[in-house]
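**User:** My hope is that you can spare some time for a protein that puzzles me. As I understand it, each token names a local backbone shape. I would be glad if you read both lines and explained how they fit together. The protein I mean follows directly.
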Amino acid sequence: TVDGAYIDFDGLRGGRSLPNDVVVTRAGAQRKASAAAPVDVTLDVQGSLGRRFYIEGAGLEARLAGDVSLSGRPSQLRAEGSVRAVDGVFAGYGQRLRIERGIVTFQGPIDIPSLNVLAVHAGLPVEVGVAISGTAQRPYVRLHSDPSMSDTEKLNWLVLGRPPGASDGNDRAMLSAAASALFAGQADS
């Protein structure tokens, strides 16, 4: 069990370097004859996130909870379990969205977890937000609302906090930028 942790992804940008005792050998590079063969390691680790496991960065602030089991060789790690966001917020589209549901489920290769996320703009007379499903490698992002409404109405409520109506050039620019950011890199499926 990890009793507590604080991971700040924004602090990882730039200036990272390896310690002096780490040696990097590029694929295809010849090894010195005296170098020993690497140790063949197989992992079998079961982990549980404690009550003080926090993550921050890229607009996300949340406490994480859950259990994950890792197994296999480091280059072929498999994971089983799930991690969920508790009391989380996401700063995006000019708003601080409350994470209503933030679940990452592992059932196979560690780099292909399934996503089940819903972040909403709190304090509005309607519920609007962003829903993310699919996998980490192929996320599917869509606008969410309750009651149901058109994507134009959802985007207006999400970004501007009001229904569509008489908007000026600044509003249209904000909506266009938010729509571009929301669906960037997402192909029609």
